[in-house]
Specification:
single chain; Porin; elongated; 14% helix; 13 strands
C-alpha cells in the first residue's frame, strides 16, 4: 500500500472516532460519566489509595476520632463517688464457765476507693454491766490494691478508767487470702499497745463458710488500774461455722478460746478471775 493510501485511511479513522459521541447521543446512548459529590468549580477529589492487603481505603484522622471519642474523665477516676459499708463481723452470745455474755465486733467505712473514714467498735457485757468496750475513729488511705494505711484515735470505755490512744496501722488482704489488721497505739504516760488480728474464710460450699480467727494484744508497760501487765497480755482464738442464708445475713455457731499471760494473768489470779476459758458462741454475721 502506498503512503498516500495509508494517510487517507488514518484520516478516515480519526473522523470516525470524533463522530462517535454525537452518534451515540443521537441514538439515546450516552457515554458513561463518573459521578462526583464535589461542588462545581472545585477540583475533583483524588481517589483514596487502597491497602494492597485488604483492598480498603486507609484509616483517616476522622475515622480515628469517630472510633475514640473524647470521654468525660470525671466519671472514670477513682474516688469519684461516696459509698458506705457496715459489717457486724461478730454479733453473738457466748456461754461457758464464766457465765453468759453478749459480744460484738463491728467495723465499717464511708468514702471512695482511695480515701475513707473508718470506724471500729468491739466489747462484751452481761445482763448486769458492760464489761469491756472500745471504739476507733480512723482515716484510711489505700496504698495498693489490697492494703490500707489507717491513722486516728481509739477510746477505751471499760474496764477501769477511760483511756485515749493515738492509733496507726495497716490492714488488708495478705497472700493466701488472710485478712490482717496490725495496729499500734500510743497513750498517756508513754503507754504503748500493739494489736495483731488475722482471720480466714474457708468456703466448704457456696453458702457454708468456716472462719478461724486469731487475735493477740501486747502492752509496752503495765497498767494496774485496768489489770494489764507488760508484754504479751492475751490471746484469743475462735472457730465459727456460718451458713449464708443471704450474703448479707449468716447465722453461725462456734467456739472461742481466750488466755491471759504474764503480768495480766497474775493480776487476774489475784482478783479471783480465770486466766483462760473455752466458750460456745451463737450469733450472726450481718453486713450492709
Amino acid at each position: 500500500m502506498s503512503g498516500r493510501a495509508v494517510s487517507h485511511a488514518a484520516a478516515i479513522f480519526a473522523l470516525a472516532l470524533s463522530a462517535y459521541p454525537a452518534v451515540a447521543t443521537a441514538q439515546g446512548t450516552a457515554p458513561p460519566q463518573e459521578h462526583s459529590s464535589h461542588e462545581p468549580g472545585e477540583p475533583a477529589p483524588r481517589p483514596a489509595a487502597q491497602s494492597p492487603a485488604t483492598g480498603l481505603p486507609p484509616i483517616t484522622d476522622a475515622d480515628r476520632k469517630a472510633a475514640f471519642p473524647e470521654l468525660d474523665n470525671r466519671h472514670m477516676v477513682h474516688d469519684a463517688g461516696v459509698f458506705t459499708y457496715v459489717l457486724f463481723d461478730r454479733l453473738e452470745w457466748q456461754t461457758g464457765s464464766g457465765g453468759t455474755t453478749f459480744n460484738w465486733d463491728t467495723k465499717g467505712w464511708i468514702g471512695g476507693d482511695v480515701n475513707r473514714f473508718w470506724f471500729r467498735t468491739e466489747g462484751e457485757g452481761d445482763t448486769e454491766a458492760l464489761g469491756d468496750a472500745e471504739g476507733h475513729a480512723l482515716y484510711g488511705r489505700a496504698i495498693s490494691r489490697w492494703w490500707d494505711v489507717v491513722v486516728g484515735v481509739r477510746q477505751d470505755a471499760r474496764p477501769g478508767p477511760a483511756r485515749t490512744w493515738a492509733a496507726v496501722g495497716i490492714q488488708g488482704l495478705a497472700p493466701y487470702w488472710f485478712e490482717v489488721e496490725a495496729t499500734a497505739y500510743l497513750g498517756e504516760s508513754g503507754r504503748t499497745h500493739l494489736r495483731l488480728e488475722s482471720e480466714y474464710e474457708l468456703l466448704l460450699t457456696n453458702r457454708l463458710v468456716l472462719q478461724p480467727l486469731l487475735e493477740a494484744d501486747i502492752y509496752g508497760k503495765s497498767d494496774p488500774e485496768r489489770g494489764l501487765g507488760a508484754g504479751l497480755s492475751s490471746i484469743e482464738a475462735g472457730l465459727r461455722l456460718r451458713f449464708e442464708v443471704r450474703r448479707e445475713f449468716a447465722p453461725y455457731v462456734g467456739v472461742s478460746w481466750s488466755r491471759k499471760f504474764f503480768g495480766t494473768a497474775d493480776r487476774a489470779r489475784a482478783a479471783g478471775e480465770e486466766t483462760g476459758a473455752a466458750r460456745l458462741a451463737l450469733g450472726a454475721r450481718v453486713w450492709f
